[in-house]
Amino acid sequence: MNRIFPPAGTAMNRVEISLEGVESPSWLDGVSPFVLAVLDKLEKCNWDLSLLLCDNGYIRSLNKQYRSLDEPTDVLSFTLGETGGDRYQSGDIVISLDMLAENAVYFKVSPDEELRRLIIHGILHLGGMDHVSNDSEEPMLRLQERLLQELSHLSIITQEQR
């Protein structure tokens, strides 16, 4: 199942969402508007990106193949960075819904906050940012948390959908 928002041919940012190994969550329709809001906040224009929501098994296989780490992780970003015409093919973000749930419990945050954090994190990587550690003083992670705060009024997973 692939969803593209907004429809192809629209001269703005676009996001395609796919699923692998997970059922379609009830909150899926809230993902694209949030991704587009992050891109707008970062002043990205004519970006195309894909977001894959998956389970731990799938992300573990990607993590092993591309990072030589035989373990699941929460988010992976695969930068394309290709320009085709007036469109920028930024790349792919992969998020494990299993790890998202585990992180929310571990960090004592809502699943909505953790999902928004992982999306922002993936987008920042696609935009060329990186971090050496998970220290909260890392510039990328500081920007991530600032964006999370600035966009806190935009929920993806509502209380009823948890």
Give the C-alpha Rg: 15 Å
What is the count of helical runs?
Answer: 5
Q: Tell me, rounded to a whole number, the average pLDDT.
A: 91
**Number of E-state strands:** 5
Largest sheet entry: 5 strands, mixed
How would you characterize this protein structure?
The chain is of the alpha/beta class and 162 residues long. 38% of the residues lie in helices and 24% in strands. It has a five-stranded mixed beta sheet, sandwiched between helices. Helix 1 links the parallel strand 2 and strand 3. The protein is globular. The mean pLDDT is 91.
Can I get a quick summary?
By secondary structure, the chain is an alpha/beta fold. It contains five helices and five strands, in the order E-E-H-E-H-E-E-H-H-H.
Question: Which descriptors apply to this entry?
Answer:
single chain; globular; five-stranded mixed sheet; 162 residues; 5 strands; 38% helix; alpha/beta
Topology diagram in text:
Blueprint: E1 2-5, E2 14-20, H1 31-41, E3 47-54, H2 56-67, E4 75-84, E5 87-96, H3 97-107, H4 111-126, H5 139-150
Parallel strand pairs: 2-3, 3-5
Antiparallel strand pairs: 1-2, 4-5
Helix pairs in contact: 1-4, 3-4, 4-5
